[in-house]
Design goal:
With about 260 residues, the protein is an alpha+beta fold. The chain has nine helices and eight strands. The radius of gyration is 28 Å and the shape is elongated.
Length: about 260
Amino acid sequence: MDWVDGAIAAALALLVAGVVALLVRRMLDHAGALAGDRVDPVLATRVRVLRRLIVASILAVGIFVAISQVDALNQLATSLLASTAILAAVVGFASRQVLGNAIAGVQLAVAQPVRIGDAITVMDQTGVVEDVRLTSTYVRTAANARIIVPNEQMIGAVVRNDTIVSPEVGTEAALWLPAGADTTRAVALLHEELGDDAPVRVADMSPEGAVKIVVSGPTTVPAQRLAAEGELRARCLAPLHAAGLLAPEGAGASASGPNQASG
């Protein structure tokens, strides 16, 4: 009944590995919960990735020990390892993307181009980094949707990080004036409405001559960015509309893309 003893030993190995992995995960989660908002985003990101690496390593060791306890499985593993080159090629090809994302996850934890809580724009999606996992990064949008970005793409893409230096983000509102409109007057009206603390700049011109004006507003926390930009845009629209200086709806968008509002 050696196979029975081996099966029992294998089951115990898997059970011990599962319990240890669960305890380690709960311990790290509990430590993070106690620290609360005091945890630095850099440390929080690294701890989460490290926790998943530790748990995965514990489970891998448990599975290896369990296989070694059963002679039939051990012999099967030995025979498979005899054809190492073929096995390595097959496993490497099948798991290239998974391993690549995992390596990229470790790189994210070390290099820290994005951290948990950062307000970022990646692949035309804007939101707050909610979690950095071993193979993917979760971004929460203003509509409370989750954008799941594979870590390889997060490393390889151009990422705009608005809070890498400061915890607050800037606000902007983009407006289009029709071709031939008095741009100088429009800028003067915006300065009069918003004051000198809100920089106004001429940012673009469409082939048809429509002019894009961008107004920079005060900084705010990422969660309030869209609301603050909506309020800023409304304040800008009022004097320009009263003066008859606004482009017809869609003039800027048809000329140079969806630039009716920024953010």
